[in-house]
Amino acid sequence: MGQLEMFGMNIHLLIGLLACGGIGLIVVIILYVSIRAIVFRSQQKLALSDFKKRNTDERGEVLPPMGSGICGTCGKASSAIYFLSDGARMCRECYNTARDR
């Protein structure tokens, strides 16, 4: 086998190795992105269910936005004040009594 034939075989071997490496790299990237997408989607579903659980009461009704402040009804300062759409601010106890009426 001459040097030229050996050079040709080596070039073909290198081209084959580079092609296999490129295809392998593409497969690894696709797997990585797919796993990341699956993990992201599961975390997103978990966060959404946690958000819904925090923002609904035991009857399944959506609660108004909440923050810290002073209740407009009883004057109690709390970190859990509901800000109603009409501009009123109510603590949890006052909101529950007003809603149950």
Description:
It is built from 2 helices and 3 strands. With 101 residues, it is of the alpha+beta class. It has a 3-stranded antiparallel sheet with strand order 1-2-3. The longest helix is centred in the N-terminal third of the chain and has 52 residues, at 3-54. The radius of gyration is 32 Å and the shape is rod-shaped. The model has no long low-confidence stretch (mean pLDDT 92).
Q: How many H/I helices?
A: 2
Radius of gyration: 32 Å
- Main sheet overview: 3 strands, antiparallel
- Could you tell me the number of beta strands? 3
Shape: rod-shaped
Structural class: alpha+beta
Which residues sit in consecutive blocks of at least 5 with pLDDT less than 50? none
Averaged pLDDT: 92
Distance between the termini: 99 Å
- Roughly how much helix do the residues carry, as a percent range? 55-70%
Share of residues in strands: 5-15%
